[in-house]
Specification:
519 residues; alpha+beta; OB fold (Dihydrolipoamide Acetyltransferase, E2P); 18 helices
Length: 519
């Protein structure tokens, strides 16, 4: 074989090999032209996300002096907390709350935050049982009721300085409520009210609360006023109100039963890890969206995530509804062992999905800005967010190494911080911050090429045809080489009559040039 022919064959083989590689890559990609490209640094970020129970699982408030057995009434718990029957009997029915009731009210309000919410949930009666309370109030002292209604007045009660030293709070509120489905009114005594109420004194606001019956107040025209103590008043606004921070999205969530006042505590924990104060809001939002119609939530949601306000002004974004679309890189089943969450919400697990959303032409730089910012963690292609949901759809497997395009209508929970290998490479003390969302069941996006089998068959057919063409070319090349040897080289090396082999002009040749390393 001549050197030119050998080079020609090697070139043909290299071209064929490159073409086969390109075809295989095109066939495996499945036309993922919309898939977000993820950099090495961002992949490290995914690997560094903590998987398992959220931090509050190890931060549960312990009630060390309470028994392990299940209590059947709030009076048992009050007795364990040093508020006995004699103190409850000191309430005088038939008159409004007054100075004579203050000492017992303050003591109950001091202890009531320690009441397990699942106990209140289990003990709670509906307001249609109030007639029995009005008929014999002393027999129903500390009975628990689930109260719903609208606020009619808010009064702040200041405590004496000596009480402050003992009780660790200096005031409480009396919130009067026109009860739903009842001719009676309620006065709710509580240590805190929604933040927006403290400045604007909003009235006629829908509320929900667990209340411990304290005493019967005055009765006029068959309408009675009943006094209750409550650990928390939930706010269910039905209309947006810019002045009080109620967005359209928060009103939508409230219409589904979400207590939007729970975001008051979460607003103070942005850019921080998940804390105990986030716990109630997290699970209530998870339960609310988990039971909601996904199509309804999608209709309420913005079409995409606007990352800038989520990172720059997160306190205005709580409850904001938007569709999180990106590449799911991990989906983990998180077990919920908390008895009160299981009892109240029916949640024994949820899924934490790590999603990378496309940045488009945006650049996100964490930490310092301006001069020297080049040394800060920088994201140029995509950015990690966390989405928690109750269910995974078919097509989205659990695992730590997945790559599925997903679309998830979700509400912004908070901007949380966690330790990331990618960010820690720049500064060991710096934490990664990412938006955390609570969502409905995700949708898995399948691209058209994956859905149409004929595209795959077409690519396979082209691949086979190219192999056939290459084989024919190689066969013809080999045939030409044989003819060349027979017709040219053989004649050139033929020994003339009378000559010796040494005169044939045959030179020593090596094994041929080595193939270059194509890798």
């Amino acid at each position: 074989m001549s050197k030119n022919q050998e080079n020609r064959r090697h070139t043909l083989l290299r071209t064929l090999g490159a073409f086969v590689v390109v075809l295989l890559m095109a066939f495996s990609v499945r036309a993922q032209d919309e898939t977000t490209e993820i950099s090495e640094g961002q992949s490290a970020t995914t690997e560094a996300l903590d998987i398992g129970k959220l931090p509050w699982s190890d931060q549960q408030e312990q009630i060390g002096d309470l028994p392990a057995r299940r209590l059947t009434h709030a009076r048992e718990l009050l007795s364990l907390l040093s508020i006995d029957e004699s103190q409850l009997a000191a309430f005088e029915d038939g008159s409004p709350l007054g100075m004579q009731d203050e000492e017992t009210v303050r003591r109950i309000l001091y202890r009531i935050p320690r009441f397990p919410l699942n106990d209140l949930h289990r003990w709670a009666k509906s307001t249609d049982k109030l007639d029995a309370v009005i008929a014999a109030p002393s027999e129903h002292r500390a009975d628990t009721f689930l109260l719903r209604g609208r606020t009619t007045s808010i009064e702040r009660i200041e405590l004496l300085p000596e009480a402050l030293e003992r009780l660790e709070f200096d005031h409480y509120y009396r919130v009067r409520v026109d009860l739903d489905d009842s001719p009676h009114d309620a006065v709710l005594c509580c240590r805190d009210i929604p933040t927006a109420w403290t400045s604007s004194k909003l009235l006629d606001q829908p509320i929900v609360a667990y209340g411990l019956f304290l005493k019967l107040g005055e009765t006029h025209d068959a309408e009675s006023e009943l006094a209750f103590a409550t650990p928390h008043i939930g706010w269910l606004p039905l209309q947006p109100d810019v002045s009080s921070g109620i967005t359209t999205d928060l009103a939508h969530l409230a219409s589904l039963g979400m207590d939007v006042s729970l975001f008051d505590d979460v607003r103070h924990s942005n850019r921080k890890p998940i804390t105990q104060t986030d716990r109630e809001c997290f699970y209530q939002l998870l339960a609310t969206l988990g039971k909601a119609d996904p199509n309804l939530i999608r209709s309420y949601s913005r079409a995409s995530v606007d990352l800038a306000p989520l990172l720059q002004d997160p306190s205005t974004q709580h409850g904001r509804l938007m569709v999180v679309r990106g590449t799911a890189r991990r989906a983990m089943n998180i077990r919920v062992d908390d008895e009160d969450v299981q009892e109240r919400f029916g949640i024994d697990h949820y899924y934490q999905i790590d999603v990378f959303i496309s940045l488009g032409d945006q650049v996100v730089r964490l930490g310092k800005q301006g001069e020297g910012a080049g040394d800060s963690p920088t994201f140029t292609n995509s950015y990690p967010v966390t989405v928690c949901v109750l269910k995974l759809p078919p097509g989205l497997p659990e695992g730590t190494d997945i790559r599925e395009e997903v679309s998830i209508p979700a509400a912004c929970f908070k901007l949380w911080a966690y330790r990331s290998r990618f960010v820690s490479a720049y500064d060991q003390k710096q934490l990664q911050v990412s938006p955390m969302f609570i969502g409905v069941e995700p949708q898995v996006i399948k691209f058209n090429s994956a859905q149409n089998p004929y595209i795959g068959f077409g690519v396979a057919g082209i691949f086979v045809a190219c192999l056939a063409i290459a084989w024919i070319a190689l066969w013809r090349s080999g045939k030409s080489d044989t003819e060349f040897k027979r017709n040219v080289l053989a004649r050139r090396r033929e020994v003339k009559p009378g000559d010796s082999l040494n005169d044939a002009g045959i030179e020593a040749q090596g094994e041929g040039g080595r193939m270059k390393d194509e890798g």
